[in-house]
Structures are given as C-alpha cells and as structure tokens.
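Hi team,

Filling in the usual template for the complex we talked about on Friday. All components are listed, including any nucleic acid strands or ligand strings, so the model treats them as one assembly.

SUBMITTER: L.P.
PURPOSE: interface mapping
COMPONENTS: three
RESIDUES: 991
SEQUENCES:
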Amino acid sequence: MKRKDRLWFGLFTMPLFLIFTTVVIIPFIIGIAYSFISWDGIPANPKVFVGLDNYVTIFHDQRFFTSAGNTIKFTLLALISVNLLGLTFSLLVTSGLRTSKLARTLFFMPNLIGGLILGYIWKFIFTDAFKFLGGQTGLDGIFFNWLINPNFALYALVIVFTWQMAGYTMIIYIAGLQGIPDELLEAAKVDGASLWHRLTKITFPLLMPSFTICFFMTLSGAFKIYDVNLSLTNGGPVHSTEMFAMNIFNEIFGYGHYGIGQAKAILFFLIVALVTLTQVVITKKKEVQM
Amino acid sequence: MKKTKKAFGFLATMVLIASLVACGGKTDNNSANSGADGSNTAAGTEKQAKISLFQSKVEIAGALEELANKYKEETGNEIDVWGSAGDSYITQLQAKMAANEGPTIFSIANGAEAEKFKSYYYDMSNEDYVKNIAPNMALEVDGKVVGVPTGVEGFGLVYNKSLVDPKDVTDLASFTKFMDSMKGQGINGLSLSQEAYFLIGHILNTPFAVQADPIDYIDKLNKGEVKMADTKEFQEFAKFMEVIRQDSVNPMEVTYDTQMGDFATGKTAMVHQGNWSYGMLADYDDLDIGMMPLPIAGNNKLSVDIPGGWVINNGAKPEEIKAANAFLNWLYNSETGKNTIINEFKFIPAMTNIEADGLDPLSQAVFEATKNGDTIPWANNYFPEGIIVNDLTPATAEFFLDAGMTGEQYLKNLDEAWARAAK
Amino acid sequence: MRRTSKAIASILLALLALIFLSPIYIMLVNSFKTRAELYNNALALPESFSLQYFESAMKKMNFLTVLGNSTFVTVLTVIFVVILSSMTAWMLVRTDNKLSKLMFMAFISTMLIPFQTLMMPLMQVMDWIRTNLHIPMLNTHGGLIFMNVGFHASIAVFLYHGFIKSIPIALEEAATLDGCSKFGVFWRIVFPMLKTITITVAILDVISTWNDYLLPSLTLSDKGLRTIQLSTFYFFGEFTIVWNQAMAGLTLTIIPVVIFYAVAQKYIIKGIAEGAVK
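RESULT (copied from the run log):
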C-alpha cells in the first residue's frame, strides 16, 4: 500500500516537477555558482573564481541599497493598494448589479496590456494629461509631471502597477467569493447582521486562501517589477525609482558584471524569501478549513 | 480494471511528455541547412548555405527583409533576418550566444560593445568587400579587420535655418547671447531631451573629442589621473550646460518625440541631434534645416564616426561563414545592394565604391564634413561600459532638476559618477 | 426605491470602469494619428478614423501567421499547465510528508526569482539538452511550450493548492472505498469540482503566455516561428516608437484575449463545492 501510494505520488507530481526542475531549479543553482565567479557574461571570456568577493562588493554598493529600499517601499505600497482595489472590485462585480459583467471585463482589461507598452501609455498620462488637467483645474499641486519629481515618481509607479494588477487579483478574489456558500450569508442577513459584519465575520475569514494567494502574487510581482519600471521611468529621475530587478539587470547587462549581478540576486532572494514565506505562514494560519 | 487504469495513467503521462518533445522538431538552426552541394545557378553564383542575420536597427528591419528577398531572387541563396526591439538587442544577442544559437552575421556598436564581443569575430582582413572600406572606417580589433561599417553617422547642432544663423553661434559668449534672445522671443533656443544619449551621451562627446588624444584622456580618467572638473574644455562645457538649464525648457520634461515635434513646429530653434533624427520630421511640413558644430572650446567640427559594423560569427560552420562572405560581397558590390544601402537603409556610405546622392539635408551635412575632414570622433564609444545610461544620466538629471547646482558641482558629480563606473 | 438605487449603483460602477479604462482610450485614439497629430495632442480624438495603420501593422507583423503561432503556443501551454499543475497540487495537498512540503516550498519560493537572473543559465541548460539529449529545445515552439510550463508551474500549483484544501476529503475517501484508483478519483471526482479555479488558472495563464515577450525573444529566432508579441518589435526603435502602428498592433494583439476572457468568465460560476459540503 505504502509503495503504491509513493508510485501514485510520483506519477502525479513528477512530470511537472521534472519540467520545473529543468527550467527553473537547475538554472537557479547554476546562477548560485556564478555568484562566486567574476565574469562578463560572454561565454568565450574567462571565468575566474573569486569566492565571496562579489558579495563583499555588494556591501559597498550604495546604489544597490537604495534600490533595495525603493523596492521595499514600492512593494508595501503596491501590496496595500492592489489588494484593496482588487478586493473592492471583486465585491462590486459579484454584487449582482446589472453592469457587473461589463465592469468585470473592463476592470480586467489593463492586465491584457503588456508591461512595456503600459509604461509608455502612462507616460502620456503623466506628461500630457496631467499637464492638461493641471492647467484646466488650477490644481497644479496634484497634476504635474510626477515622473520627473524624485519624490513622486515612485508613487506614479505604484499607481500604474496597481492599475495593472488590481484586475488580476480581482479574478482570484472572485473565484474565492464564488466558493462561499450563499446560505451562510443569507442566514446572517436574516439574523440582522450588517453588511460590514457579514464581510468581516463571514466573507473575509472564508476568503483567507484568496488573501494568501493574492498577497503572495502581489509581493512577488512587485519585487520582480521590471518592464513597467523600464518604460515608465527607466529608474530615474536620479535613481529614485530604480527597482531591484533593474539594478541587477544593469549590473549584468549594463556593466557586464555577471557574477556581481547574480550575487545580488541570490542575496535579495534570501531576504525576500524569508519575508514572504513568513507572510504565507502567517496568513495560512488564519485560513479556515471547511 | 485497476491495472488498466494505472496503465492508462502512466500512458497519459508519457504521451504528455512525448508530445512536448515531439512538437519541437525540424528547425534546428545550427545543424540543418547543409544544402550546399555546389550546384551553380544561372548567374554563375555558387549555391550557399542558409544563414541568419541579426541586427539592432529596427528602422531598417523591413528594408532588410526586402533585401533578403531580392538576394534570394538574384542568387538563389537564403538569409533569415531576425528581429529585436531596439533596446533589447544586446541582451538577446548575448543570451543566444550563450546557447550556441548565435546568428551568422550580426551588427555590433563601435567601442566598448565591439570590445566585449570580440571573441566572436571572424577575421575579414582578406575578404574582397573589405578593400572598399573608406580609410580608417573599418571595425578593427588587434589590427585585424573584423567588421564592415554599416555607414557613417554624425551629430551636432541641428538648426532651423529660418531661426538661426550659424554665424551667431560660434562660442560660449555668442551662444549665451543667442539663447537669451530666443528666450525673449518665447522660443526654446536649444533643446535636449531626457533619453540618456540625447541628454548627456552625445553632448558630452565634444569636450572629450577636442582633447589632444581622447582615448588617452579617457584612460587617465579611468585611472583617476585627471579630473573633468580640472580640465578647461569641460569647464566650458559646464558653462554651456548652465546656459541651457537657464534658458531652455527643462530637458527632463522633453522626450525625443516632443523634442523633434517642437523643432518641426518652430517652437525650438536648435536640437542637439544626429542625422538619424531626420526620419522623425517626415510627418511634418517641410523645414529648412541644417547641422552645425557644437562650439564648445572652439570646436568647429561635427561629431562623425561609424556607429558600428557587420561582423561574422566565427562560431558558425565553415559553409555558413562562406555564405556570409558571399552575402556581404553582394551587399557592397551589387547594384541592388548598394542601392538598398543608400535609398532604403538611408545610410551614409562608408565605402569608397558607393556614391552618395539624394541624401537628406542632415546626412548631406555629415557626408560633406566627412569628405572635408571636418570631423571629430565619437569618443563616447570608448567610455566604460554602461556608464552613460547608469551613471552620467542620473548625475545630469540631478543638475537639470536642481537649479541651484553650479556647473562646478555638476562636473564634480560627473567625476564621481565616472570613478564609480570605471572601478 | 430599491430598484432605482440599484440602477444608480449600476451606472456608477460602469462609470468607474470607464475611468479605469482611460489609458486604453489613449491607446486606441493614437492608433489613428500621424506623428504630428500625436505630438499636437495625445489625448484628443483623431482627425480621421482611417484604418490604414491597422492595415500596415497587420502587414508588417504578418498577422495571421503570428496569430496562429501564438494561439498554438498558448493553447498547448495552458492545457499542459492545467493538467499537470492540478494533478501535482492535489497530490501535494493530500500527501502529508516532508517531501511534499519541500516540493511545495520549491514551487512557491522560486516565484520570487527575477527572470533576468535565470535567463543566461537557462539558455545554457537548453543548449546542453540539445547537444546531449538531441531534443531541440531552442528555436522551436515545443521548447518554448516546455519552458512556459516550467515557469508557469509555480503560480498554477499555488492557486490549485489553495483551493483544493477547501474541498472536503470525504468524497474522495468514499470513491477510493468503491475501488476507484487515484487516477480515477482525481479525474472523476476532484477535477470537476475544480472548475472555478481551473478557469481562473486558465485565464491568468492565457494572458501571461500570450503577453510574454522576453522568453520567446530569447528562444525563438526564425521569422516563421514568431509569436504575436515578438512581431511587434518593428514598432519599437531604440529611442522612439512608431506610435500609430504600435498602438494599432497592440489593439490587434489584445482583441483575441479580451474575447477569450469575456467568454471564459461566464464559467466562473457559483457553488461548485457547495453541494459537496453537506
């Protein structure tokens, strides 16, 4: 029996796990090996083993820490705004309003536009539309070009990312909401529970698996953000929006410091994995088993 | 019953995997295409192996595919033209090289980039097409010709003839006066734009190129033996930048698109741009424009150089290298090839056997400067890898965003940025 | 009274959605403009609604071919992702041992690795497979699908994992007692109950496969193999974009996915697991 179970386990999981190992895990391990090597990324050029030198170099890299700080700030803001908006959307479009089907499609549309072009389109909004609005309404304290102000450019990035990801999380929240039995909510309603009570006492606890998933997806998406970063601000002005993935990319492909770039990736991976896995563990504990 | 189910499960899994593998197939680029059996076509040209070509200029991608079709019509040989968005070319090239999946012919920028990929170059020194390259225009590594120049490009002050007389902009004093008077008329005297090369990469070339030995100067800068802040050409450059910040629209607000739009509609008198920018004016009414030198430190020449060249991948199979040579010969010697270079690619030829006629006004200016020897080189090709985008641009952005920063401080910041990148 | 307030809420919801869509408006209007018009005002309606940029974009992109390529790659990727991930996730949920936990953690934690740091080693691994196992992983659709499945596995397993946990185990146990093999239990009992999440996974995976640029750009070189995203490179120069054609091309690329989404979302229906709860 035990043997048979193991066989089934293998049959069900190994095909995917083998593919996954080939494509993700092995390259990742090779990447770890590269982090101890000094190399410019050109296969024919020499690779020199330098031990921990690459890691030591990172600790003197002020710009790396700035970008790590930017990334953390960005991620926290994005985490809140994406999920708040995504959850609101999902509640709105499942509330049985006549336009909810249409809204469901429209809210999701931004997700269909790839990150690069998305950044370019928003550039028009921040430069042209904001200038226009500022001129028309006189509110030029709000409507100016956020992208060239080091204090605001990061928020611009948060807005664009939220606009893109909210629809994505909405889909997952909808799937979660659909799993909550109507009877529970109806019963609570009959018992006179207010909307807020029904949300916080029934819906949200039962939605915990969706929260876990959405938080994690937003986290990993925000930590890895690159395309929008590149096309919207390209890290500027004055490195104020250079995110972590861009910093690595520049190290590897801009300066040709392959080993240092890999070392940065490993270091950041360790930190981020620690943070996010803690988050997963915490939210998982709150999940209610049905 | 149980057994069959299990067998079925196993089978289904295998089918999944097998179909994954099976729907690959046929197009193994490196090993196929051995159709070089030496049969001759009517034109007497040899039947060559199929090769691939990869290049960074999106603007000529369509014309290049068209050229490949014509090449096939005329010679029967095939070229697969690969595509890539402009800013991801080098990354893709590097990744494909790492996978032994590289193209047969590829384009490479002069300077640091050419240096980086040098282990891949086939030595072209003895090939026919190399003989017609104009003096000093070949791409050379360690004394060997490894690349044919794609063409010549140049940049300087592109000006609107109805707003600017070149005689009025010849040194710092006259430049300042011109900028002030333009500002008085509500016109942007000189517009830079936020993209790294258009903000600082190109304009910084002039103080470098007017040094007695630019490459030696860069070398000393890398070693920390000289400082821009202590060099008088750079001190004057900083003064130019101060005037630009004071009198023109903040370059950080300007994109290449708006820069050229403002120029085309007369809101801007001059832009610091190259002959490539002529393409941006196509949708606007006709303009009378020209290109003149950026007069920093007495400079009276345009910055002209070869942006890069075609190289052949020495990792390709011998028959592919042979086919690549045949193609380059055809490109630079046949009427179709020469015609395409001038009229479709709109390149200024760097070959002695190709006549340049019907050039647009900016290319014409560059071409004439080249003929008369009135040019300074692109020293920025020899800057440390990645420095323009990663270090010099942020420092310059800071200068333009902070009206209180002096030119002196700006130069110090540039020196610091340089030291960081050159380590 | 209730009816009017509902109607008002409906209208407000629609308005909110429209505001949310304003960037898409910018994309659309600029697919009709010349460079001069766009420069003049990027927000205004175009002077004329001529489809010429759509036509030229389609021609340049070789639209039908790349549409076919993208559809092929996307459909196969999603089918494999759905089948393999749901099976894997189910086993991982129902098996309570160290190996199972370790595998789950491996799937999840690698979601945090930026692709940029994997791409060079990935290409080397693929080259190794091609050279030593003679399986053409590079410059083939099959290879791309294989890599897609690997990269999308994490998210799909994660999604399935979260939802399978909320399915009661009782039904499965009953079926096992009736003599069903694991395979039968999964496909007859479990998978049908996963319909909502399967549709969700499929939607999200269709989009990420369809929109991917970086991975196909590294693995596909031949012109004939290009996906729809790869074919838009013609419009993206180093410093400028051919706006009208790029926007037109982009509009063309998202239409198939919008249709797919509009159809698929109908199947996200309520109460799949409900009947099973009691």
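MY TAKE: The domain at 51-277 of chain C is CATH 1.10.3720.10 (MetI-like fold). The two ends of chain C are 37 Å apart (CA to CA).

Thanks, L.
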